[in-house]
Amino acid sequence: MSAVNQQEVLASFKVLVSMAKADGKLLEEEFASLADTFEEIHLPEGVTVDTLLNAEDEPIDTLLSQITSDIAQEVVYQSAYAMANIDGECSPEEKALLDKIGTTFTNSKMWGKQEWLEALEKRSQQSPISTQVSQIDDPARRAIEVDNAITDTCFLNAVLGAFPLPGIAIAFDMLIYWNQLDLAQAIGQSWGYDRNQADFRKAIFGSLGITGTRIAVSNLAKLVPVFGMVVGATTAYASTWALGKVANEYFASGGEMDAFSLRQAFKKAKQEGETIYKSKAEEIAAKKKAIEPQVQLLNEELKAGTITPEEYQVKLKALL
């Protein structure tokens, strides 16, 4: 694997900002999502969130020419794909920019390319979280069941987040996202709400900035050397904890919380989640260490083409 230098990392982040602006505008929620996510990671020295989001746009050809290593090209394409497609609404402008990135990086060893990413999105099997919680009329029992679902999902996602592997991590990041969506839907169901994925995404995930943007930046952050196991695990645990708590509060209110209230509650709960993670860190690290050899074997099998992306996901979930 060729080395990734700081210029490549910076250019890579700027490509994602260009993707966010591809349709000619950067919506408030998109800006907030980018800003919040950039603040969670260790940016290259001398780079700030403000300089990334507010600097004058550079020509995309110039940025892409600065990304030369195979692994950086692979991760940039994966991240841009996630940003453009995970919400199911890839605009013509986003599609054109994504095609531009793919065409420019034709010499990189992007195994699977669209097929790999499309398979991740399909998720052949539904998360078991979905069946753990159903409508519960007794408030005390509902609180216990919801807390158990949140705790279990936090642990699962923290283990996934503890694998900061460029080129592979997109699979873990997407599973974290889908687990969070399943958790929010399950909590809604415990309150008697129908499980409508599109409505959940718009009402909660969109308001909180938990979108393809967050996944894209998180995946790209794996190129930054200091983004290690602890950072990834902490972020995954804390964001999942906050999402679960906010979802429960949202449904308890009858779905009346506005976007500002959701974001404020999320920030407060996320700090709480970071504190709770510290008490679970050793257990999470032990689980990560225990399954690491099997995960490495799965990664090698996937790259070699001996298992399909669907089989990879099923086997990975079985390990967890």
From TrEMBL:
The organism's place on the tree of life at top rank: Bacteria
SUPFAM superfamilies found in the cross-reference section: TerB-like
Alphabetical list of InterPro entries matching this protein: TerB-like
Protein's name according to its UniProt entry: GTPase
Organism: Pseudanabaena cinerea FACHB-1277
Lineage of the species this protein comes from: Bacteria, Bacillati, Cyanobacteriota, Cyanophyceae, Pseudanabaenales
